[in-house]
Design goal:
The chain has 295 residues and is an alpha/beta fold. It contains ten helices and 15 strands. The strands form three sheets. Strands 3-6-9-12-14-15 form a six-stranded mixed beta sheet. The chain has a five-stranded parallel beta sheet with strand order 1-4-7-10-13. Helix 1 runs antiparallel to helix 2 and helix 3 packs antiparallel against helix 4. The two termini are 36 Å apart. One of its GO terms (cellular component) is cytoplasm. InterPro entries: Hexapep, Hexapep_transf_CS, LbH_SAT, Ser_AcTrfase_N, Ser_AcTrfase_N_sf, Ser_O-AcTrfase, Serine_acetyltransferase, Trimer_LpxA-like_sf.
Length: 295
């Protein structure tokens, strides 16, 4: 299998055509998922019934995802059939949600070396599942169906240990890696191709109302345990080191580490990087610039 984890039959990407038709992409990924599920059912018969009910019995990715989320998030009073209809109707009526679901699958498959297949992500990655459920909750929020959006948020938090306010805006190609303990506030915005690790908080600074949460640019990487507070901007392609506490804006293509966070290279001449860390997942390249004594 070539670099990036995709098979040679993956539709080609070129600089002139980075974004081919979303319908074709969705169909290709769904074909891969079904092939993976058949392979796994044959090699591990104990999973055959599970794989049939969650993937192989469905005609499309949105039906499989709606079924799986409905069963994951149901309770004694919030029935799986109700949730299935809700998820399926929302995914089916909004192509942008389906495109985002596919982009998120690709993000996990390419960026996470522990992700062995698209079907593995679809079935087992709670960060992926929580993000797709959030997208539906956000759609409900924008439709003024706020009690249902908040009820869904509560179930997502209970089941996946991830708390994302339904008003928060999240782009596509987003990876929530491990995802436990992630908290994202009401007015937060997360751009495209962002990678966020576990125990990250995008929060407010107190009881202030209004626009009070971070804005995360495209291609940002936020390391495990990082806390970003207030209506601050994290510039495109920036990197936030694990455990950092960020309270002010971070310029594009720079690295902020520490508590309180400081820019690698200093405020006046910060070290800038060319790659998008949200895609490269490079957490440690800044260390040689930070100190000549590394523990």
């Amino acid at each position: 299998m070539p670099a990036g984890g995709l098979s040679s039959s993956s539709p080609p990407r070129t600089p002139a055509n980075d974004y081919y038709r979303a319908d074709d992409d969705e169909a290709w990924v769904w074909t891969q998922i079904k092939a993976e599920a058949r392979r796994d059912a044959e090699s591990e018969p104990a999973l055959a019934s599970y794989l049939y009910s969650t993937i192989l019995s469905h005609s499309s990715l949105e039906r499989s995802l709606a079924f799986h989320l409905g069963n994951k998030l149901c309770s004694s009073t919030l029935l799986s059939t109700l949730l299935y209809d809700l998820f399926l109707n929302t995914f089916s009526s909004d192509p942008s949600l389906r495109a985002a679901a596919v982009a998120d699958l690709r993000a996990a498959r390419v960026r996470d070396p522990a992700c062995i297949s698209f079907s593995h992500c679809l079935l087992n990655y709670k960060g992926y599942l929580a993000c797709q459920a959030h997208r539906v909750a956000h759609k409900l929020w924008t439709q003024s169906r706020r009690p249902l959006a908040l009820a869904l948020q509560s179930r997502i938090s209970d089941v996946f240990a991830i708390d994302i306010h339904p008003a928060a805006k999240i782009g596509k190609g987003v990876l929530f890696d491990h995802a436990t303990g992630v908290v994202i506030g009401e007015t937060a915005v997360v751009g495209n191709n962002v990678s966020i690790l576990h125990h990250v908080t995008l929060g407010g600074t107190g009881k202030a109302s209004g626009d009070r949460h971070p804005k995360i640019g495209d291609g940002v990487l936020i390391g495990a345990g990082a806390t970003i507070l207030g209506n601050v901007n994290i510039g495109e392609g920036a990197k936030i080191g694990a455990g950092s506490v960020v309270l002010i804006d971070v310029p594009p293509r720079t690295t902020a580490v520490g508590n309180p966070a400081r820019l690698v290279g200093g405020k006046e001449t910060p070290v800038k990087h060319e790659e998008f860390p949200g895609e490269s997942m490079d957490h440690t390249s800044f260390i040689s610039e930070w100190s000549d004594y590394i523990i």
